[in-house]
Amino acid sequence: MKDLGVYIVDLKEFVGSVVDQLEDFLDAYDIRIDNKDRDVQDPCAAIIYGKDYDYFSDIIISGLKKYHYFELTYDEAKHEATEIVFALLSLLMQKGHVPDIEYDFNELVDSIEKTYEFWGLVSKLKEKYEKIDDKLAKYIHEHKMMEEIKQDIMDIVTIDPKKFPKYKIRQRIAEKCAVDYVIGCEYDCNKSYWENLEALKRENEKFFLNHPEYE
């Protein structure tokens, strides 16, 4: 038994349910995999047997380990399902089976993906959390950039203290330049970083000179 997030999953049972999907696929196309351990006289014998079963078991469990046994997003489940189907295709070719154009591997991928969903291994919340994480990372990056630009404007690109004797206004100009550059993307890609800052500085100085009410 393995604790996968909020679910308790029997890994052997889960592996077995995925392998069942592979066997249903093989059976639908009347494909048999040569295996010396399999009793060919038994019509009920499993198609995937012995070392072949272990081969798929290792692939399925190693896929879950990548996500530390926690829930997957729909894209991750589809990726894992695709990897399993590629493993089946590889095994078939090793055993001398040439895939037929009629084989519907896409349907098999969808079937395995649904098995992940059935076992509670796919989470909509994880996708939402990842989107939030992306937004947070973007916000942190933008905030850091704006702080650096504000510092550049204040320390390196000189704002005339005679025009703006109040430090607070000079700070507002620097903040406005940073927002324009990072959020508004108001810069010329043909100019250097410092040329763009100088242009933004002049533009925002003009704005604050014409709008003394903002002081």
UniProtKB/TrEMBL annotation:
It comes from the Bacteria. This is Uncharacterized protein.
